[in-house]
Amino acid sequence: DTFEKEHGANWELLPQFVAIHTNDTHPAMCGPELMRILIDEKKLEWDDAWNIVTQVVSYTNHTILPEALEKWPIGTFSKLLPRVYQIIDEISRRWHESFDTTQEGWQERLRQTAILWDGEVRMANLSVICSHSVNGVAKIHSDIIKNNVLKDFYALTPEKFNNKTNGISHRRFFAEANPTYAKLVTEAIGDGWLKDAFELEKLKEFQNDTEFLKAVGASKRANKERLAAYVKAETGLVIDPNTVFDVQVKRFHAYKRQLMNIMKVMDIYNRRIANPNFHVTPTTFIFSGKAASSYTFAKETIRLIN
Question: Number of folded domains in the chain?
Fold first, then answer.
């Protein structure tokens, strides 16, 4: 509605103003649903609608685990979303027709890239086909996608594939979240690092600067005291700022290794009990995260930690 108010029925302009990102396969129907809107509601022809969709939609693959490459039974899918399934079926048909059957091994490549196969809708393949950009979240992960998981797609459309390393904005998680340390850095190297994170390499010049390191230590101590005060106010627990803070903030999942982490804590504790002379640096272990409502393993891990 907002787009139409500004641009009327000039839907070919949509990619200039709208980007739809399928962040893993869970929202994979964004492409087919946009096709449905453009064809059924806005009365565009298929080719025009498809040209718009493939400029608007992009896809991030987050992991190579099976749950990140969802597959749904065609029977269930087509009953729940009959019109969207019709559109997916047509996307699939056109994808099949696009194959060069004179190329050696085309049958296997089609099998690997098909949207509809063995009675299932392959959401990852649908996401790739509907997107103009496909990325992994680390260089090694993106290489695995190109050379293994989605290698047949990469062979067909290498220009789609790129890497975007997962991370955080240093402006938010450093400059804003840690103002005292950020002030020290700015005083030392100027404020250029706020726009260009590579400027932080200039801090190497201060690695043996006693006064700078002393100020950094004081900043870290103040932050630990702030966290200790927050934890006490929110939970009533008292933690010692003089200890090392060992923190894991992640959603709870087997591959995130919270279980391994708490087993390390248990091992340190047991070794200390068994041998009072066993030396360990005083450490406060902090876990933060949540588990999916039906993920029993993760919930049991949280219970173990508590």
Answer: 2
195, part of any domain: no
Enumerate the β-bridge partners of residue 244: 283
Q: Are 147 and 120 spatial neighbours (Cβ–Cβ below 8 Å)?
A: no
- The Cα–Cα gap between 97 and 217 comes to 64
- Identify the domain containing residue 280 by its residue range: 243-306
- How far is 188 from 182, CA to CA, in rounded Å? 10
Structure tokens at 228: 């200790």
Number of H helices, E strands in the chain: 15, 9
Last residue of a domain, one of 163, 189, 219: 163
Whichever domain contains 133, its CATH number is 3.40.50.2000
Tokens of 38: 């453009």
Give the global pTM. 0.69
pLDDT tens-digit series, residues 197-222: 999 999 999 999 999 999 999 999 99
Straight-line distance from the first to the last Cα atom of the chain, in angstroms, rounded to the nearest whole number = 49
